[in-house]
Write a structure and sequence with these properties.
The complex is a heterodimer of chains A (about 575) and B (about 300).
Chain A (H helix, E strand, L loop, with lengths): L1 H11 L14 H29 L7 H8 L1 E5 L15 H10 L4 E2 L9 E2 L2 E6 L5 E6 L13 H12 L17 H5 L11 E5 L2 E5 L7 H4 L10 H6 L22 E7 L3 E6 L13 E5 L4 H9 L14 H7 L4 E14 L9 H9 L3 H9 L4 E2 L21 H10 L11 E6 L2 H18 L3 E6 L1 H9 L5 E7 L6 H4 L16 H11 L4 H18 L2 E12 L4 E2 L15 E2 L3
Parallel strand pairs in A: 1-10, 13-14, 13-15
Antiparallel strand pairs in A: 2-3, 4-5, 5-7, 6-7, 8-9, 9-10, 11-15, 11-16, 12-16, 17-18
Helix pairs in contact in A: 1-2, 11-13, 17-18
Chain B lengths: L1 H28 L13 H10 L6 H13 L14 H36 L4 H15 L2 H15 L15 H27 L2 H8 L4 H13 L1 H15 L3 H7 L5 H10 L2 H29 L8
Classes of the chains: A alpha+beta (about 575), B mainly alpha (about 300).
């Protein structure tokens, strides 16, 4: 009161001073305006602060505690699913959700990826050479709309994914079935030629192109999952890519959970499916999949109690988390191979000595210890460890002396005269770090200079498939636990080869393995094939993947899996 | 005035058409396709997919189809997200960005404008230096730094507010503060500049000579003109702030429009890129038109000439 009175008084006595040009306001004037403004500004601010504190009264209850009490798992799922149609999807975020909603003949095993677990099929048998398989579907197998799951549903579903018009990217997973490839490529229009037949409502017979004892493992893949023909027909028909059957309103599944919420970029929620054949053994009441793309946001979400499991961990956090040792950081082998493709159609990479020298000059142990830091295994061959009965190749070793000798032999002693070459990576900080490490190793050990350039994902894919690169960063993750999933991509002209490399002896061995009479013979043949691949070195193996993620200790039954494909029904949450 | 608005509106339509054509061309020329995949697709199969989305037609025909569809408000399907149309995506995400943007803008104006006025009036004192240094920091400190700092303090250490997500009013506080403070800094500086210019005008001196109370001078005579720079900035700011901020949406996992811009571009989702670009361009055109009208109303020096 006193202050405003005073300044009011002073104000009356000041007009003459303002005649001077460009005189800033006096202190008295400031004080005056201060009082006028402060009241308004302060009251506005006070309101804002009040609102803020109201919204935030007291410490929040953590989502993860509430959900754990309700038996709901909160899962970081990496990205918004592009679709939940098993015959369209290609990515991990999609297949993770689909695994909760749909179940194939064979389900994912809770602990061991090399074993089949019963799914829609309660029993199965193969003929002597594993070319004809008969599956007995369980009587109580039902769709979530009450329809029974019958053998013809699988025939319909496999016809759907193999239809050329459907344009499924994973259709080639089914090529092991007799005539499936011919049908998919439009060489035959008659699906009855394809080796899948419903003998009766509950019996399905599958004929394969060759003896395939790992067929059961392939059946776990979502490309073999069934869809409900009645529902698919209702919402656009078998081959409609934009069919509405797989939306929130219309989704019908046969898995342990049902689709409950699908809020774009926010959340996908599933709840327990009472019609599931094994519903009594499903432990969780539901799962919320959060599509958090940014690794730091996801990590903060875990710290802030919004998640029980993350999809990954920011690499720079790993060392401090390991030191803290809270038991939340998980590092597990993941069946994938990180490597460089080498374009063998370009000089000087058409010379096998150059390719070998480049490979031998890379200290992989140093890369996994100092650069990636996620417990990855330094690759000694292309096929990662993990397949039962398959001994990993030891062909790739760090040998700088040998590398220098080979390079000199190829005409580039001490790296002299080595043409300018570049490593292509898709835009990512971690890929760049690895490429830089290798760039330095080649400079130090071999005296050669290579550049690094990055391209956006889609552009990078195009450059790779049109062989428009020298050396290109790549990764390959197993679709099923078997060396075949890694080795078949390097046959001549295979769409995923992308190196220009072709070797008839290699192609013959892969074909021989596909038709092998026994699993032992197949693995032995594949071993020979990998030896050729590592001899010719169109690829430069770097490391074998691990999955690094955060896990709330309350999550139980969450076992390490080589393919990261846990069946959700065996997972549970403990109270504390 | 109506003539002026009609002329400006006509210009806006032309600008939008030009932007549509240019975007279509750029998208068509960019290497890569929405259907490139890590798993090779047989050419026979790829042709089927491309035919489904009309990519088998020559570019000019595609442009014409897409333009005529767009004029009817139909931007086509997303080429990457199955059974979602671009219109669906926009209708779902735009309201989220709109509400986040509105609150952020409110934060920006409530903090920025008074701070700017205060700084101008108390020029060269600590009441000027303090908010102006703060606003300099605000402009220089990117949202991807400010956001995580706020999250760390209020979400993780104090555990007062959710760290991310979008399921209630309390989820809006941190993102709105992050986005709002950034714009507040701009508004503060613009307002200060505008107010200073007004306070140095001759008529202000005359008014003071005549003994008009200082609060009347500020509130009645200077404020209107002093806000003009801020209002000019309001147009693009409004368009930008309500069409979503990729960074803030990413930090706080907000299902708004901003991340679709980036997803569209990374996925080479051509229809989505076109739809979003046109939406953003239309917003800017409309906001600028509105701002121009308001400016003329506020500023006697401007007239509806053309």
């Amino acid at each position: 009161m006193l202050r405003s009175g005073q300044s009011g008084f002073k104000f009356l006595s000041q007009p003459h001073r303002n005649h001077a040009k460009h005189v800033p306001l006096s202190n008295e004037e400031h004080k005056l305006m201060l009082s006028a403004f402060w009241s308004k500004v302060l009251s506005t601010l006070a309101l804002a602060i009040l609102g803020l504190s109201l919204a935030a009264c007291g410490t929040r209850e953590r989502d993860s505690d509430v959900a754990a009490a309700e038996g709901i798992l909160l899962l970081g799922n990496g990205a918004e699913p592009k679709s939940l149609d098993p015959h369209l999807i290609t990515g991990v975020p999609e297949s993770t959700i689909v695994r909760a909603l749909l179940e194939g003949l064979i389900a994912s095993h809770p602990t061991d990826d090399t074993l089949p677990a019963p799914g829609m099929a309660e029993s199965w048998q193969a003929n002597e050479n594993s070319t004809v398989w008969t599956f007995k579907l369980r009587e109580n197998a039902k769709w979530s709309n009450g329809d029974p799951v019958v053998a013809s549903d699988f025939v319909y579903s496999w016809q759907r994914i193999l239809s050329p018009v459907q344009g499924s990217e994973y259709a080639s997973m089914l090529y092991v079935i007799e005539n499936a490839e011919a049908f998919h490529l439009g060489q035959t229009k008659d699906f009855s030629q394809v080796g899948v037949k419903a003998l009766d409502d509950k019996t399905l017979e599958v004929r394969l192109t060759g003896a395939t004892s790992h067929f059961l493992l392939m059946l776990k893949h979502q490309s073999y999952a069934p869809v409900n023909p009645r529902v698919v027909e209702e919402f656009g028909g078998m081959t409609d890519r934009q069919s509405g059957w797989s939306t929130l309103e219309n989704y019908v599944g046969n898995g342990p959970f049902r689709l409950k919420v699908w809020a774009t970029n926010e959340l996908v929620e599933v709840d327990r499916n009472p019609d599931y054949w094994d519903a009594a053994n499903v432990k969780l009441n539901g799962i919320r999949f959060l599509p958090i793309e940014n690794v730091n946001t996801e990590f903060t979400a875990f710290q802030g109690g919004r998640l029980h499991i993350t999809s990954t961990v920011p690499p720079d956090r790993i060392p401090s988390l390991q030191e803290a040792n809270t038991g939340e950081l998980m590092i597990e082998p993941y069946m994938g191979s990180y490597f460089f493709r080498i374009n063998v159609t370009r000089k000087p990479f058409d010379d096998v000595r150059v390719r070998r020298a480049l490979t031998m000059a890379v200290d992989r142990q140093l890369i996994v210890d100092r650069v990636t830091k996620g417990g990855q295994e330094a690759a000694t061959g292309f096929v990662p460890s993990g397949s039962a009965g398959y001994a990993v190749s030891k062909a790739v070793q760090f040998d700088p002396e040998g590398a220098r000798a080979l390079l000199a032999d190829a005409g580039y002693p001490g790296g002299k005269g080595f043409p300018k070459a570049e490593i292509l990576i898709n835009t990512s900080e971690s890929h760049r770090k690895i490429a830089e490490a290798i760039q330095a190793m080649w400079r130090d050990e071999l005296g050669i200079e290579v550049g690094i350039y990055n391209q956006e994902w889609k552009v990078y894919l195009d450059s790779q498939s049109t062989l428009n690169y020298d050396i290109s960063r790549a990764g390959w993750i197993a679709d099923y636990v078997h060396p075949m999933t890694f080795l078949e991509i390097f046959t001549s002209g295979n769409g995923n080869n992308d190196t220009g490399w072709a070797n008839p002896a290699y192609d013959a061995l892969i074909r021989q393995a596909q038709g092998a009479a026994s699993e032992e013979a197949r693995l032995a043949t594949l071993q020979q094939a990998e030896a050729i691949l590592m001899d010719d070195m169109p690829v430069l193996p770097i490391y074998w993947y691990t999955r690094v993620y955060m896990k709330d200790p309350r999550v139980e039954g969450w076992n390490p899996k080589l393919l990261d494909n846990r069946p959700f029904k065996t997972i549970s949450l403990s109270a504390s | 005035m109506l003539k002026y608005i009609a002329a400006r509106f006509g210009q806006g339509v032309l600008v939008l058409l030009a932007i549509y054509a240019l975007t279509f061309m750029l998208v068509a020329l960019t290497p890569g396709s929405p259907f490139s995949s890590e798993r090779a697709i047989r050419p026979e199969i790829l042709a089927q997919i491309e035919a489904f989305y009309g990519y088998d037609k020559p570019p000019l025909e595609r442009f014409w189809t897409s333009l005529t569809n767009a004029l009817q408000g139909e931007f086509g399907p997303s080429a990457v997200y199955a059974n979602r149309s671009v219109t669906d995506i926009i209708l779902e995400a735009f309201p989220v960005s709109l509400s986040l943007g509105a609150i952020s803008l409110l934060v920006a104006l409530v903090i920025g404008i008074p701070a700017g006025i205060l700084a101008a009036v108390k020029r060269n004192t600590w009441l000027d230096y303090l908010p102006m240094s703060a606003s300099m920091i605000g402009i220089c400190l990117p949202t991807f730094v400010l956001g995580p700092i706020l999250v760390l303090i209020f979400g993780i250490i104090l555990q007062l507010l959710p760290v991310s997500g979008w399921s209630g009013p309390e989820f809006m506080v941190l993102p709105a503060a992050t986005l709002g403070l950034f714009y507040a800094a701009y508004f503060a500086r613009l307002t200060r500049g505008g107010m200073l210019e007004m306070l140095n005008q001759d008529f202000v001196r005359t008014a003071r000579a005549k003994g008009v109370p200082e609060r009347t001078i500020i509130w009645k005579h200077c404020l209107k003109g002093g806000l003009i720079p801020a209002i000019t900035f309001l147009g693009p700011a409004l368009a930008g702030i309500i069409s979503g901020s990729f960074v803030v949406e990413t930090i706080f996992q907000i299902p708004g429009l901003g991340q679709w811009f980036v997803k569209g571009a990374l996925n080479r989702d051509d229809f989505l890129i076109l739809g979003l670009t046109v939406l953003f361009a239309a917003l800017i055109v409309i906001m600028n038109l509105l701002v121009d009208i308001v400016q003329v109303a506020l500023n006697p020096r401007l007239k509806y000439d053309r």
